[in-house]
Molybdopterin molybdenumtransferase (Bradyrhizobium sp. LLZ17), 403 residues
Amino acid sequence: MALMPVSDALAAVLAGAEPLAEEMVALDEAWHRVLARDLAARRTQPPQAMSAMDGYAVRAADAARIDAQLNLIGEVAAGQPFAGTVGAGEAVRIFTGGVVPDGADAVVIQEDTAVEGKRVTIKEAALIGRHIRLAGVDFREGDLLLKRGTRLTERDLALAAAMNHPRLPVRRRPRVAILATGDELVMPGVTPGAGQIVYSNGYALHALARSEGAETIDLGIAADTVEATTAGIRRARDSGADVLITTGGASVGDHDLVKPALEAEGISMAFWKIAIRPGKPMMHGQLGAMRVIGLPGNPVSSYVCAFLFMVPLIRALSGREVIHHRRERAVLGRDVGANDQREDYLRARLELRDDGTLIAHPVSHQDSSLLANLAAAQALLVRAPFAPKAEAGTRCEVLRLPV
């Protein structure tokens, strides 16, 4: 059976992945949620011309020369407008955020004035519009400021609040269930017995899914039996998971039972085995609305495949505007050998030189079990199938890993 190219496998994973349903959430619960609809301003900001500084609201024509003297007729504080009008030879004390009174067209900052009683002396000539924030200088009612598909940052939330939106329409978070398999796995903190290893894959997978905005469901570790694996698959379905991620049991050994268990539950397999390193024994299928990604058990293979396939799927289900990882240009920091038929994702450290050149240094050992090298890497160096040997200094492409 021919190995499926990575691009075809990703297309299969994303096929038909439509954004999940819309729901309304309070503004303070919307951080990192994805907008389901375009958002327009409900008000003009600022609604009136306001002072940008503490000083004196004046008519620029009256304060155009040094040592001009004006009569102080009142005061404006933020939220407390002046009811009168500034006439010829008059000034109003004004504070930052105060509404510029009628008749005034400039603000002279307090450092550029001298005050005695009710007389203000100008020490710096005024200019029309200086130190005034005009009405609508930030935005106007009806302006479309936040677009559908935006993953909301803290800055977006501040803007939405200023636009007068107490609740926001967002996409439901994808629910991702994670099931590990393997008799050899023990939990962290347990002393492993002969032939056992400490379970680590799930911690990376849960964190990676949550960092992309998903809710995660921990299905634990299933023993290497069809019954235990099937029970885990059914728990994922019954929990309402949008995505089931399995890790381990995806290869061809006698104890690799995930594929037959999935098929026995009626999951239609889109592919099994892809032309990728690390991660060849990866699978994908669907059971009703639940999508399934079967990851290899080796920890580096599991993480790399989750990064390349699970993350774009979560983004698509979340309604994100951009779902694919961005490739960056870099330069090889050392020689790399020729590649075979599999697309290679080498773990690499990055160096940014003073001239702006990004250098990718592949780690020396690329074995798919080496977590220390994965943790030390900042990027995946992408090598196309059948890429020839490349020397240090050759241009290359990298995908930055999350920080």
Notes: The chain has a mean pLDDT of 95. The longest strand covers residues 343-352. The domain at 6-20+172-318 is CATH 3.40.980.10 (Molybdenum Cofactor Biosythetic Enzyme; Chain A).
